[in-house]
Structure formats: structure tokens, C-alpha cells
């Protein structure tokens, strides 16, 4: 009896103290992204944005397509859809975001430029890293590059009409790593006379280059970074080595210096941090480059309006003789490792809290 009373006393005492609530397991970036509603919205230029998800090779590929309403197929559900055939007249700019997905949600290519619609794809990875892994180790690069290709070739025509012979590409940070390391060497053979803008990221080909003799002489590649780029991307295996590797591919495939410089260009003149091409920040910097995309990648004069000092804004400098990019120290306190590539400001913007 006495033991029962002592036990009851302990139970009562424990009940008198506030109990700690069990913490909910932290959601992955992919899980948080799934809570951001999909559907149909209006772009900055009045185009319609379709946000949806489709399975590609067993991977969930969430996409946004921004185009005039009449370019969408009726099956898309977009109001005003009028296309009856996937064969249209508009080109397509496919953008792969950086680690964490920020540019997917911003969609900096949503406005039509040079008769080219915008498409962004969300990485099918719990961290929203294109190619998986982290830093320069993109362990799922082959599968992700194949999924991007198969979405463009097989899934996109089901919802929008476009000119399949006028598809160009944009990479941002980790998206540029997938583009330069895996997509260009493995999949660019499927996109004759294309162009790729590699913003704040790049690496030499990580897989065997398919049909380089066809691809290299007809693919325009622009490498864009800043003077205060992350050490990870300044170093071995990253942007400078990518410039050298692609230039060598040009030489190996019989291109003259003039031909290489016409196709492959590089610039890191702005004094910004990672992707801060305007000298201000990641989001505004990426938007600055995409606003002038057609000027750089589609036959314009190569000038980007709003680049940070001391840049003149002219970015189309041929790679031959300009491989040795000059970098300076990053701002004090700026982290210098792979974590610095991750930008998830969209989490706070979506109301999930956090400090990204």
C-alpha cells in the first residue's frame, strides 16, 4: 500500500510539470515545395503560367510553362488555350534552378523574349538539387539530365505548342553544374543549333560526350559569373576548368580560334557575390541576366543592362585567351562551402518561416 502511494505521488508530481511537446520531423525542401500550390497564374508580361507535375522516368518533374494563352493545348486546362498541334512557332528557354529551388519559384524567364516562351523545371530531389549530391559531386546527374531531355521531348508537347528546333537553355548555380557536366555532353545532340547560358556555375563534362563533332560547332555557350564567386566554384573542377574543357572540345573538333570565340564566351566582370550579377543579390542578379537573355544568347549585341560595377555590361568575350578568370575575395562573413550555393528564400516568401 505504501509503495502504491509513493508511486502515485511521483505520477502526480510529474503531471504538475509542463510536458515538452515532441518536435515534428523537419520537412525536406521537396516536401515544403509540395505545399506551394500548383495551378494557373499570370506572368509579368500577361502570359499564362501553367504549374503542374508529371512523372518522367519514375521521377516527379514539377514544371512551369509561361506562354501566351493561345499557345497552350486544350488539354492543359489553360483559359484561352487554342493550339491544336504541338508544332508551334515559338521557341523555348528551359531553365534549371540552383540548389534549393529559388529560381523555379521566381521564374526569371517568364516573360516572352525573341518569340521564346519560358519553362522552369524543379529538381526531383529532396533537397531540390539538380543532379543530387552536393557541391561538385552530382551523383544523380545522368538520370536528371535524361529526365530534363525526356520532359522537353515527350511531355511538354502534350500541353503547349512550340518550335522544337528552337529550344535553348539556362542554368543557375547547381543547374549550371548539371547543364555543363551532364546535359550538354549527353543530351545536347538532341538540340541542334541551340544555346546554353551557364550562370554562376559550371564544370567540365562528367560523362562521355555524345556526338561532339556535331554538337560543339553549333552550340553557343556563355559562362557568366562574378569576381566574388564562391571558392568552390572558382577552384579545380569548376568554372575555370569548364571554360578550358569546352574550349578544348572546340579545338579537338576542328574549330578555329575565331570560330570558338564566336560560340563560346565568358564574363565575370561584376563585383558581386554568388549569382549577384547586379552587385545586389541572388534573386535580382539572376533576373538581370535573364531579362537580357535574348541579347546574349539569341543574336543580340551582348549587352546586359544593370550588371554590377565595374562591368561595362558587354559580356560576350571569347574564351580563347581569357580562360584565366580573375577572382577577388568574397565579402567578409560570406560562407565559402557548398552550403553557400543553397538559396531557399522562397520558403519564407511562402510563409513556412525559416531564415533563407
CATH superfamily: Alpha/Beta hydrolase fold, catalytic domain
Rg, Cα atoms, Å: 23 Å
What percent strand? 15-25%
Q: Tell me which CATH architecture applies here.
A: 3-Layer(aba) Sandwich
Q: What is the H/E string?
A: HHEEEEHEHEHEHEHHHEHHEH
CATH class: Alpha Beta
Q: Indicate the percent of residues in helices.
A: 25-40%
* Low-pLDDT windows of residues: 1-17
Give the strand tally. 10
Strand order, main sheet: write it out: 1-2-3-5-4-6-7-8-9-10
Kindly identify the CATH topology.
Rossmann fold
Q: Total domains, how many?
A: 1
- How far the N terminus sits from the C terminus, by CA atoms, comes to 58 Å
What class, by secondary structure content? alpha/beta
Average pLDDT, rounded to a whole number, is 92
| Shape category | globular
Helical segment count: 12
Give a short account of the largest sheet.
10 strands, mixed
Protein name: Alpha/beta-hydrolase
Organism: Pleomassaria siparia CBS 279.74
Keywords: Signal
Signal peptide: 1-16
Provide a compact summary of the structure.
Keywords: Signal. This protein has a single domain (41-349), classed as Alpha/Beta hydrolase fold, catalytic domain (Rossmann fold), CATH 3.40.50.1820.
Describe the structure.
The protein is built from twelve helices and ten strands. With 356 residues, it is an alpha/beta fold. The protein has one domain (41-349): Alpha/Beta hydrolase fold, catalytic domain (Rossmann fold, 3-Layer(aba) Sandwich), CATH 3.40.50. The chain has a ten-stranded mixed beta sheet. Helix 4 crosses helix 5. It is globular. The N and C termini lie far apart (58 Å). Mean pLDDT is 92; it is low at 1-17.
Amino acid at each position: 500500500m505504501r509503495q502504491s502511494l509513493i508511486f502515485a505521488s511521483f505520477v502526480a508530481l510529474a503531471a504538475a510539470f509542463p510536458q515538452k511537446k515532441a518536435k515534428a520531423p523537419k520537412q525536406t525542401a521537396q516536401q515544403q515545395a509540395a505545399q506551394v500550390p500548383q495551378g494557373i497564374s499570370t506572368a509579368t508580361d500577361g502570359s499564362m503560367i501553367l504549374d503542374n507535375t508529371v512523372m518522367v522516368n519514375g521521377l516527379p518533374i514539377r514544371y512551369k510553362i509561361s506562354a501566351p494563352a493561345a499557345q497552350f493545348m486544350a488539354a492543359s486546362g489553360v483559359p484561352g488555350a487554342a493550339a491544336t498541334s504541338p508544332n508551334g512557332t515559338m521557341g523555348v528557354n528551359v531553365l534549371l534552378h540552383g540548389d534549393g529551388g529559388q529560381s523555379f519559384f521566381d521564374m526569371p524567364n517568364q516573360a516572352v523574349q525573341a518569340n521564346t516562351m519560358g519553362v522552369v523545371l524543379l529538381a526531383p530531389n529532396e533537397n531540390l538539387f539538380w543532379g543530387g549530391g552536393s557541391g561538385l559531386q552530382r551523383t544523380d546527374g545522368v538520370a536528371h539530365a535524361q529526365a530534363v531531355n525526356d520532359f522537353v521531348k515527350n511531355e511538354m508537347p502534350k500541353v503547349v505548342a512550340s518550335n522544337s528546333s528552337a529550344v535553348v537553355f539556362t542554368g543557375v548555380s547547381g543547374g549550371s553544374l548539371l547543364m555543363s557536366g551532364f546535359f550538354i555532353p549527353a543530351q545536347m545532340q538532341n538540340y541542334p543549333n541551340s544555346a546554353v547560358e551557364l550562370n554562376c556555375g559550371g564544370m567540365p563534362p562528367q560523362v562521355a560526350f555524345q556526338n561532339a563533332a556535331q554538337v560543339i560547332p553549333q552550340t553557343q555557350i556563355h559562362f557568366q559569373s562574378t569576381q566574388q564567386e564562391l571558392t568552390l566554384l572558382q577552384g579545380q573542377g569548376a568554372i575555370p576548368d569548364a571554360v578550358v574543357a569546352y574550349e578544348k572540345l572546340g579545338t579537338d573538333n576542328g574549330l578555329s580560334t575565331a570560330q570558338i570565340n564566336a560560340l563560346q564566351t565568358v564574363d565575370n566582370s561584376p563585383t558581386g557575390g554568388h549569382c549577384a550579377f547586379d552587385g545586389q543579390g541572388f534573386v535580382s542578379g539572376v533576373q538581370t541576366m535573364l531579362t537580357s537573355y535574348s541579347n546574349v544568347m539569341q543574336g543580340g549585341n551582348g549587352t546586359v543592362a544593370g550588371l554590377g560595377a565595374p562591368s561595362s555590361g558587354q559580356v560576350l568575350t571569347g574564351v580563347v585567351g581569357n580562360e584565366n578568370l580573375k577572382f577577388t575575395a568574397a565579402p567578409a562573413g560570406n560562407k565559402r562551402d557548398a552550403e553557400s550555393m543553397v538559396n531557399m528564400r522562397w520558403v519564407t516568401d511562402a510563409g513556412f518561416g525559416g531564415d533563407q
